[in-house]
Amino acid sequence: MTRRAPSVLAAAVAFGIRAAPSLSAVAHAEVSVVILPYVDETGAVTEAAQQLTLLLQQQLLLQIAPYGNVGTVRFARVPQKCDLREVRRILPEGYNGQDLVCVSGRFFRADDEIRVQSFVVIERQGGLPSVTLEVAEKTLGAETPSSNIALMPRTMSKADLDNMSASLRNRTRVYAQRRKDSSHRQLVGALGKNTQYSVKSSVEGWIEVADLAGVGWLKAASPDDSQGFADRLPEISFLEAVVGGLRSLPWTADPAQPTRSSRAANAAARFSLLAGAEDEQAAAWVYVIRALMALSSPEARDALVDARSYLDGASKLMAEDSKIRIMRATVLLRLVQEGISPVEAWRQAKKDLLVVTAHGEAPGNSRDYFDLLSTLRPALGWPISDEKVIGAEQQELQLSGLGSEGPTSPGTVQARRSVASRAHEHCSSRSEESGVELFKKLFAATGDANYVYEQGLCYEENGHPQAAIGRFQEYLTKARDISAEQKADVDRRVAECQGLQADAMAVGRSLPARGPERSSGSKLQSWAVAVGAVGVVAVGAGGAFGLLTRSRQREVESDVRSGFYDPGPYASGRRYEWMQWVGYGVGAVAIVTGSIMWKIGHHVGDLTLELVPAVGLGQGVLLVQGGL
Question: β-strand 70-74 against 619-627: which pairing, if any?
Fold first, then answer.
């Protein structure tokens, strides 16, 4: 006997709800958010947890409505985990063709304090678009990172929850017509029952919504309306960014497409501003979806630059995620093909691929990537050396065996790649001597002058200009067939290092050493006054940077509320905040030190002081030492 597909009515009965003709609209939304029960440590679903998920569903509905063709479904009891096969099985007929965003969570309450943690799983029908690279007759593709995302726990009070519910109740009135003086009812939603809503259309600040009672009009939310919710539950902004991103992919000729993309980008920026770097997985995923949106736009060259910027942000947050690194390497190689900062892009792409390979997480098509790196070298003015990569699997070989095989033997090349990757990691983690030592061994085994150049870069990155100059000059004498562009790059680096040396020498001359001298307590008190004055100036500077920080914060918040986001003020605000605390810290230490010196000078007659200059890269320090 053949089973018949369940009807919408049968699915509604399975939901435990009364079917309505308008529900067919829900089943045809292009993106739906499914909210599962938030459970406590025993797996129970409390009344307060149901209050939270209903609030989350209704506020999210207001925020995603402008994207059109979206819907939300909330299960009151089961299931409790985002097993998408199980979730799709119990959804009404018509949902299986949609993109789904599934939300589940944990809910803990101790007295008046509530602690909430949300988990999100994203599934796009046909998969999320990959970042692709056309090479000859091949297409290289990079997959997106895991779409199973755990957000950071949030803390709120029961009073916060009640206040948000009361505020939302006033904004979820469903009107018969697009007028506030028309008859109205409350958006259907009960704690113990499943609820579902869909957006049919959006017209002049009104949202046509379907719920179990039929179809009506909601007044669209303003940015100010959602501010309190976003502060307490940044995941609402995260979910809006995800839904907006899914609705913006791929780019279409729809006139509403630019508006959707801009709104999704602002939601992403709002989440980054509210959650910060603590929510690193979710924040990185927001960067990834913004990169995908940029790459789907028709402005190819600008899109590549924007996508690279977003993937840089994602990589900083999730440096160990191999898929993000491969995505960035793919975009970087496309930049090389387009001639956009080709040398820097080539080097960073190579570094990403080496790091991924060293961690044993190389993609299946990594050989094609490394072959492309070698193929692109001549276009940058570099001949293909015997460093050409011809394998993809990571092999750990002893350094002593590097030169024992032929110059292009797979084993030799793979071993060099592994050692070079470890050397780069040492240089990046300020273990420059270890990194330089590995590059020396690579040069000794291969004779490739590029490893001498890498030694110079390692020293330069870690603040050793004299050593860097020596390596760069050695590279110029040992490199063969060096291009004019390469020589100009080396000359520029040498000049920069020489400038740093000159700065250090100037500081040294301005701080002449003085021999021991006898100083009375009154002299020490003079020093105390000077140190204390420095402290007061530093505290004042900290206060000034504090004012600048608050100014930038107000500017960013104003931009976000108005639907616009500029990363410049946000970045400068973070910089001012850091300088504010540096000023306060240095000032406090100086004031305390000055006070101690004053007291010592008051009680001590004579002491021996010796002023010793200490010179460092670009800075000088005057040390005071002595004895009583």
Answer: unpaired
Q: Is 612 helix (H, G, I), strand (E, B) or coil?
A: strand
What backbone torsions phi and psi does residue 417 show, to the nearest 5 degrees? -60, -40
**Cβ–Cβ < 8 Å for 369, 376:** no
pLDDT digits (tens, 9 = 90+) for 500-520: 777 666 544 544 444 444 445
Q: Is 500 helix (H, G, I), strand (E, B) or coil?
A: helix
Structure tokens at 606: 């004579």
CB 266 within 8 A of CB 230: no
| Count of C-beta atoms within a 10 Å radius of residue 318 | 20
How far apart CA 242 and CA 147 sit, in angstroms, is: 11
**Would you kindly state where each structural domain of the chain is located, as residue ranges?**
8-248, 387-509, 517-627
- On the CB side of 471, CA atoms within 13 Å amount to 24
CA dihedral defined by 579, 583, 584, 588, rounded to 10 degrees?
150
Determine the residue type at 77.
Answer: R
Instruction: For residues 20 and 14, give the distance between their C-alpha atoms in angstroms, rounded to a whole number.
Output: 14
For residue 194, list its beta bridge partners. none
Percentages helix, strand, coil for the chain (3-state, rounded to 5) are 55, 15, 30
Nearest 5°: phi and psi at 42? -95, -5
Amino acid at position 328, single letter: R
Q: Single out the residue of 225, 220, 187 nearest to residue 204, CA to CA.
A: 220
Q: What are φ and ψ of residue 33, in 5° steps?
A: -105, 120
Tell me the two tokens of residue 74: 């909330």
The Cβ-side half-sphere exposure at 594, using a 13 Å CA radius, reads 17
- Cα separation, 461 vs 439, in Å, equals 15
Q: What is the pLDDT of residue 187?
A: 93
Residues 6+ away with beta carbon under 8 Å from 501: 465, 466, 469
Q: How many CB atoms lie within 10 A of CB 510?
A: 11
Q: Is the pTM of this model over 0.85?
A: no
Phi, psi values for residue 238, rounded to 5°: -65, -45
* β-pairing verdict for 99-110 and 31-39: parallel
- Rounded Cα–Cα distance for residues 62 and 49 (Å): 20
Q: Which residues contact 294 (CB under 8 A, 6 or more apart)?
A: 303, 306, 307, 310
- Per-residue model confidence as pLDDT tens digits over 384-438: 443 333 232 233 333 434 444 444 444 456 667 777 877 887 787 777 888 888 8
Phi, psi of 34 (to 5 degrees): -105, 120
Helix (H) / strand (E) containing 250: none
H-type alpha helices, 98-222: 158-169
DSSP 249: -
What digits encode the pLDDT tens for the residues 161-190? 888 888 888 889 999 999 999 999 999 988
Q: pLDDT at position 487, please?
A: 86
CATH number of 387-509: 1.25.40.10
Contact 109, 48 (CB under 8 A): yes
Q: Is the peptide bond before 79 cis (omega within 30 degrees of 0)?
A: yes
Sign of CA dihedral 78, 81, 86, 89: positive
